[in-house]
Every structure is written in C-alpha cells, then in structure tokens.
Design goal:
Layout (H helix, E strand, L loop, with lengths): L3 H13 L21 E5 L2 E4 L4 E4 L14 H11 L10 H13 L4 E5 L2 H16 L3 E6 L15 H5 L10 H4 L2 E5 L3 H11 L3 E7 L20 H11 L3 E6 L10 H6 L5 E4 L10 E5 L1 H4 L18 H13 L2 H24 L5 E5 L2 E5 L12 H4 L4 H13 L2 E2 L16 H20 L1
Parallel strand pairs: 3-13, 5-6, 5-7, 7-8, 8-9
Antiparallel strand pairs: 1-2, 2-3, 4-10, 9-10, 11-12
Bound molecules: 4'-deoxy-4'-aminopyridoxal-5'-phosphate.
C-alpha cells in the first residue's frame, strides 16, 4: 500500500500543527506508523490522499451513523447553507432538533452547544449551581472531553498516552473532582460516606466507551445495573446523576444507553450522532433543572455558534433517518463482526475479551485467558497494546481502518453492508496471526 502522500502531508503538518493533528488520537501515537490523511469519504469508505480505499470502523468517532456523505444529509446541508450559515439569533430548525432529542430521551428541555466538551463542562456548572455544592465524582477511564476538572484519570487520548492528568490543569481545578473505578459500588459508597453533603453530582459515561467498551455492570445479588445504583445513591444524598451520552446517544439504540437500561438521569449530555458530522452537541434534563440556565435562570451558559443552522440541519436529518431499521441493521452487523473477530483471534490463540453496548463494541487484547471480563480501567490497562498495534496495522494494510488505539470502540454505520463486512472478515485471519506473533 502506497502512503507517500500521507507521509509528506504528515511531515508538513508537524511543522505547523502540534503532533501534526488537531486531536491526539488521530496521530497513531499508540500504534505507530503514518496517520492517513483523508481526502474524501462515502458510505463505509474512507479514501486517503494516496487514493487508498478503507472500510471505516471509526465513523468520525461516532457521528456517522448513516455512513459518510449520506445524500439526504448533504442535500439538507446544501439547502440551508445558501440561506446563510450563522445568524446569532434563534431559528425554527433548532427548536425542531431540541424536540427531536426530547422525543427520544427522558429530557424535557435541552440547550444546544458545539462540542461534547462544552456539553459536559456546562452540565457540571449547572449541577453545581443547582445544588450549591462543589464536589463531583467521575470514574477512572471515563472521558468527558477535555474539561479541566474532568481531565483526571481520563480515558480516550489521555488513557492511550498514559496522561492521567495534564500539565496546565491546576490542583485547585481538580481538588473537587473525586475519582473511583468504574463499576466499583463500594468505592462510590465510600465517597458518599465521606463527602455525601458536598457532592453536587456523579458524572458517568452511560456505558463507558473511552477505555474500550465497558458497559454498566449488573449486580449479581439484586439485579441492579451500575447506572441504577448511581442514580439511587445520588438521590439518597441530594446529588444529581449525570449520564454522558455523547458517544452512546442515538447510537447504541434510538434512545442511546437510556434505551437499553432505562435508568433516567437528572441531566444528560449528547453529541456526535445528533450533529450528523458537524459541530453540534447538547445537554438536557428536567424542565425544573434546565430553567436554572440563563436567560431563564441564573446559571450562565452561552455560545456564538450554538444551534448553528448548518449543523442543526445535518443533525436533524440524521436523527430523522435513524429509524428502527437502521439500528436493527447496525446491531446485526455488529453481532456478526464480533463473532468473526472472536473466531479469528481464537483460531490463532490470541487471548481477548469483546464487550459491547448495543452495536458499539471493542476488543481487549487481554494478557491471558484468565481475564474473562473487563469491568474497569485497571483491568483495561492490562491489555497487550503491542498485540493490538500489530492487529491494527495488518487490518490497515488490508484496507480496514480501525480506531488507532486499543482503548477505543469500533463504530459501524447503516452503510456497512455485506460487501464491507466481507472485506473486514477477509482481513481478520492475517491480523489475528500478526497479533499472535507479538
Ligand atoms: N463525552 C464522551 C463520552 C465522549 O466520548 C467525548 C468525545 N469522544 C466527549 C464527551 C467530548 O466530546 P467532544 O470531542 O465533541 O468535545
């Protein structure tokens, strides 16, 4: 596979952009090699600057639920863009997008923003404003964007690069952030026992997807799922339960992880799919809580491009086209792919655990066969990332673009058809063999 043009562009990029990329995980840092510079994309395909064609299992890290360059999304964008691209004044379409989000989720009001980071940052401010408390609880390996106070034991790029915090985040900023292992109920109980009346909220990924996919665990004794436990302990202590559905929302089911476990959070964050590939995100909750936001209430929050008409058109069209059939297709494709990956890895004796939340899944290259489940970040970190890197590059060479990190989920779209799946499946044996050789 020829990659000279990507290599040239990467060289040039590194002169003007830190690390050559505008978001860390794109840099192939944890798997090595040259990141591919993408020229265009269509359906399940990515085409790089050298003309190579890949089946894309990243889908822009989630947004492209309908595949790339979906004709209806393009047409909706084309139609609105000629009428002006930003007004700094309200529009009918943003009301429609808010209504579409409310229709699918338990929130009663939403505020649109431009990125998932903004959504989580804003929702923390609202939770603190409403409760009058300062402390927040987050989980190791959960990533909620690069919000200062949440850049503590974060997942995603931070997990991959082994940066459990970041220079530039002050001790004062994180002093009110309490961290414990995901799915560890005793640790949460302990935090509440110690700080109960100071905790404004618990923020969690609805199903963790930034340390690999780690769904909320179910308690063997009482059958409750982790989200349910969190909601109950929050409410028993006057704290708010915040579910971050930026990654899972409108992807793992029509109503996100809420559609799977039915646990109603006090506040929720959304992004990715609801922006249809444009910068749009949102947060929402009960009318009572959301009415505390300016200008209705006293908690300040704002954005020049919030509810941007082009992003809203793309998001609204995507949600309208994300029918039950779409989710059924993606769910089925995901199940088939998980089975094929497991088969290939087993044939070559590569220890692994595959976990999913709806159609979102990831493959953990576990150190040995004694690890049969990955409930938390501590376990996720025992992965053989060297094996993943070998697997990743063999897949890439065969024209399959996996997330370039062992800590990321694999994303599918409605355009991943039998032909796309066949190409992935064909590539698996060599990739599994490559992983086995490490
Ligand atoms: N929350 C979650 C769960 C995410 O996965 C992400 C991004 N991967 C974010 C928040 C941040 O979103 P953004 O990158 O749009 O700021």
């Amino acid at each position: 596979m020829q990659t000279t043009r990507s290599a040239e562009l990467f060289e040039r990029a590194q002169q003007v952009i830190p690390g050559g990329v505008n978001s860390p995980v794109r840099a192939f840092q944890s798997v090595g090699g040259t990141p591919r510079f993408i020229q265009r994309a269509s359906g399940p395909h990515l085409y790089d600057a050298d003309g190579n064609d890949y089946i894309d299992l990243v889908c822009s890290w989630g947004p492209m639920l309908l595949g790339h360059a979906h004709p209806s999304v393009l047409s909706a964008v084309g139609k609105v863009v000629v009428d002006g691209t930003s007004f700094g004044a309200p529009t009918e379409a943003e009301v429609e997008l808010a209504e579409a989000i409310i229709e699918r989720t338990p929130v009663e009001e939403v505020r649109l923003v431009s990125s998932g980071t903004e959504a989580t940052m804003s929702v923390l401010r609202l939770a603190r404003g409403v409760t009058g408390r300062d402390k927040i609880v987050k989980f190791a390996g959960c990533y909620h964007g690069h919000v200062d106070s949440l850049l503590v034991a974060a997942g995603s790029g931070a997990a991959t690069l082994g940066l459990p915090g970041s220079p530039g985040v002050t001790a004062a900023t994180t002093a009110d952030t309490l961290v414990c292992e995901y799915n560890d109920r005793d640790a949460v109980r302990q935090l509440f026992a110690e700080y109960g009346d100071q905790i404004a909220c618990v923020i969690t990924e609805a199903a963790a997807g930034n340390m690999g996919v780690v769904p909320p665990g179910v308690d063997a004794a009482d059958g409750t799922n982790f989200n349910e436990f969190l909601r109950d302990i929050c409410h028993a202590n006057g704290a708010l339960f915040i579910s971050d559905e930026v990654m899972t929302g409108f992807r793992v089911s029509p109503a996100g992880q809420f559609g799977i476990d039915g646990v109603r959070p006090d506040l929720m964050t959304f992004g990715k799919v609801m922006g249809g590939g444009f910068p749009a995100a949102a947060f929402g909750g009960s009318r009572e809580l959301m009415q505390r936001l300016a200008p209705a209430g006293d908690v300040y929050q704002a954005g020049t491009l919030s509810g941007n008409p082009v992003a809203v058109a793309a998001g609204l069209t995507t949600l309208r086209l994300a029918t039950d059939d779409v989710y059924a297709h993606i769910g089925e494709t995901s199940a088939r792919l998980r089975e094929e990956v497991a088969k290939a890895l087993s044939v070559f004796g590569v220890p692994h655990v595959i976990q999913n939340a709806g159609s979102l899944f990831s493959v953990f290259f576990t150190p040995d066969d004694t690890v049969t489940a990955v409930p938390d970040y501590a376990t996720a970190k025992t992965q053989r990332t060297d094996r993943f890197a070998a697997f990743f590059h063999a897949m890439l060479d065969a024209g399959v673009y996996l997330p370039p990190s062992a800590y990321e989920g694999w994303f599918l779209s409605s355009t991943h058809d039998d032909a796309a799946l066949a190409r992935i499946v064909d590539a698996l044996p060599r990739a599994a063999a490559a992983a086995a050789r490490v």
